[in-house]
Design goal:
The protein is mainly alpha-helical. It has 2 domains: about 60 residues, Orthogonal Bundle (Helix Hairpins), CATH 1.10.287.990; about 100 residues, 3-Layer(bab) Sandwich (minor pseudopilin epsh fold). Helix content is about 50%, strand content about 10%. The chain has a 3-stranded antiparallel β-sheet. Helix 1 runs antiparallel to helix 3, helix 2 crosses helix 3 and helix 5 runs antiparallel to helix 7. The protein is globular, with a radius of gyration of 16 Å.
Length: about 200
């Protein structure tokens, strides 16, 4: 068994004009694939070769295997990021909207917090909307860091590595973050993650 490199959940040009097909060809087709390929190479012939990616990430983190963790966690983070985006504009509703208003005051306040966290994150990493003990919060992780191993439930994520936006925006991370938060976040996916018992699982 090998870890899959799942296809995008939409056409490569579906996020234009906010994220270009050129960016997705590089980001999904090369960066994400490289993390998958390196993970598979690292686990080949070991007992991890038959395990789901989530278990590999946890094992790598717990054993201090930084190389395996970096690639496995990045493979998971990227697949979760693709699902966190939608070519069709969505809005939170129902239980998700109620939780947002309870924990942030309003959707606008949540969006402001996400933008501030993503824009101000130093160097490479990720900005997350997460749930823990029934409460929503915004966090960030550095490099390949993932909230998958933190004992909390990831709800949405924004990739703030330069390769997520540099082709389209050069060094203008705020413009990329504004487009993602205002136009592309998949609130339907967020609602599913909030409602599900377990954490989202990487496609087999």
């Amino acid at each position: 068994m090998t870890i899959a490199h799942p296809p995008l959940p939409y056409a490569q040009d579906a996020l234009e004009p906010h994220i270009s097909a050129d960016t997705l060809a590089t980001h999904h087709g090369k960066h994400h694939k490289a993390y998958v390929d390196k993970t598979n190479a690292a686990i080949e012939g070991t007992e991890l070769a038959s395990k789901p990616l989530e278990e590999i990430v946890h094992h790598a983190e717990g054993s201090g295997n930084k190389g395996l963790f970096n690639n496995a966690a990045q493979a998971w983070n990227h697949a979760f990021y693709w699902e966190s985006l939608s070519p069709s504009k969505t809005e939170p509703k129902g239980d998700l909207l109620a939780a947002v208003e309870r924990d942030f005051g309003s959707l606008d306040d949540l969006k402001k917090k996400l933008k501030e966290t993503a824009v101000n994150h130093f160097a490479s990493g990720w900005a997350w909307l997460v749930a823990k003990d029934g409460k929503l919060s915004v966090t960030d992780t550095h490099d390949a860091g993932t909230e998958l191993v933190a004992g909390i439930k990831p709800i949405l994520v924004i990739d703030v590595w330069e390769h997520a936006y540099y082709i389209d925006r050069k060094n203008l991370r705020p413009a990329y973050v504004d487009a993602v938060v205002d136009e592309l976040l998949n609130w339907d996916f967020a609602a599913e993650n909030l409602a599900r018992e377990a954490t989202w699982t990487y496609p087999a």
